[in-house]
Specification:
The protein contains 5 helices and 7 strands. By secondary structure, it is an alpha+beta fold. The chain has one domain.
Length: 177
């Protein structure tokens, strides 16, 4: 599977080079371009993405590791799953990420569940922190997969003269006889 960031250009524009992060850290305030928002809307199956803004701070954490803390704000246009009416949702989400050199990330044993409060470390890729991927994944996870307008009501009842569809097990019951 290809990296979705390659399609939207967030890699070069949003990722941070380790060499450019001073000892005291770096503060960023980023707004997605119209082209990035258009591509993201297509990837995330949105009607539109009129706004995407991220503010974050990256600081070194020692041993070649980095910590990112910030916030993501977006406005998404979707379609109500009940009425098919257009609706707008505002997203406000915390951005949390830790980035480690790949050789420091160990594989968890199969079936192991990590319940630490720290997010799982992301590998530093070719001397760059994949901030674009973190922003994309945070946005994707925050979008309501079944948006519903506040006044939308599913008002459907089967017609009285309609028989319910036969059970798939009815054919098996006939075979048993």
């Amino acid at each position: 599977m290809t990296d979705p960031r390659q399609d939207i250009g967030l890699t070069a524009a949003w990722d941070e080079a380790v060499r450019d992060i001073p000892e005291g850290g770096v503060q960023r305030d980023r707004t997605a371009t119209e082209a990035e928002r258009f591509a993201l809307a297509g990837l995330l199956e949105l009607v539109a993405l009129p706004s995407l803004h991220a503010t974050y701070r990256i600081r070194p954490a020692g041993n070649g590791r980095y910590v990112l803390k910030g916030k993501l704000e977006a406005i998404v246009h979707q379609t109500c799953v009940v009425s098919l009416a257009p609706l707008t949702n505002e997203i406000r989400q915390e951005l949390d990420g830790v980035f480690w050199p790949p050789e420091q990330i160990s594989e968890a044993p199969s079936g192991a569940v990590d319940v630490e409060e720290e997010p799982d470390p992301e590998p530093i890729e070719n001397g760059r922190l994949p901030v674009g991927r973190l922003v994309f994944e945070t946005l994707a996870a925050a979008i309501d997969p079944f948006p519903r307008a506040p006044d939308a009501v599913l008002d459907w009842t089967p017609k009285a003269d309609e028989a319910p569809p036969p059970s798939p097990f009815a054919a098996l019951a006939k075979l048993k006889k």
